[in-house]
Amino acid sequence: MKVILLQDVKGLGKEGQVVEVSDGYGRNFLLKKKLAKESSVANLNEVKLKQGARAEHEKRALQAAEDLSKDLGGKSFTLKMKSGEGGKLYGAVTNADISDLLKKNGYDIEKKQVVIEAPIKAVGTFGVRVKLHPKVSCQINVEVESL
Known about the structure:
The chain is an alpha+beta fold. Helices cover 35% and strands 33% of the residues.
């Protein structure tokens, strides 16, 4: 029996794949739990349309990330933090601090997209990587100044 997987099934295949399974496994497990549907011409066309739409969506997301990377890459942003003697900060600069700074400057960047290589615990200029897409990232400079 040929079925089209609606979800990833461990040991069998990924979503959208057409796989050959035994009749009992297909009818009694995959179809009953809505993990797959029977392979027919209409169902195959539906899967192809969904895959095409998903590919187009991924292509647009990648293009948007590349455009944002060109705009954001290499820019410098200033962050004011409380500091003690010798330029040592009270605490450290976090991903959330940098995300908030970027949002104030008009860039919608989540804190999980900000990658700080080493903890920022002093006044100065530091390079921070921003992951915009799994394939696209850019480097920004964060100037930490004392209040």
